[in-house]
Write a structure and sequence with these properties.
27% strand; Translation Initiation Factor IF3; four-stranded mixed beta sheet; globular; 24% helix; two-stranded antiparallel ribbon; alpha+beta; 2 helices
């Protein structure tokens, strides 16, 4: 477990965005989660001051769950509706039905 995140958080993997801006972190995060199975609990670390709003918005748009936040730490669960396509190396995002 990361030494400074809340001790009660349980997670399967960790992604450290470092000093990058949220935009860059989200681009890198999108590529990173492609290899993770749905349901993974991910510790996301980002020191960008915009992170609280940006990661909450990213979770809403991607339908992932922002389980908890204590800047610069964010606990996210990748939703089971993300369908990994291992042959293509892609994550297929669900579409909205009419």
């Amino acid at each position: 477990m990361h030494s400074s995140c809340p001790e009660h958080w349980e997670f399967d993997d960790e992604f450290d965005g470092g000093e990058e801006t949220c935009g860059r972190v989200i681009i890198n995060l999108h590529a990173y989660v492609k290899a993770l199975p749905p349901g993974t609990r991910l510790l996301l670390i980002s020191s960008d001051p915009a992170a609280p709003a940006e990661f909450a918005a990213w979770c809403r748009m991607t339908r992932n769950a922002l389980l908890d936040a204590a800047h610069p730490y964010y606990l996210i669960q990748l939703k089971p509706h993300l369908l990994n396509n291992p042959e293509e190396g892609e994550v297929t995002w669900p579409t909205r039905s009419a």
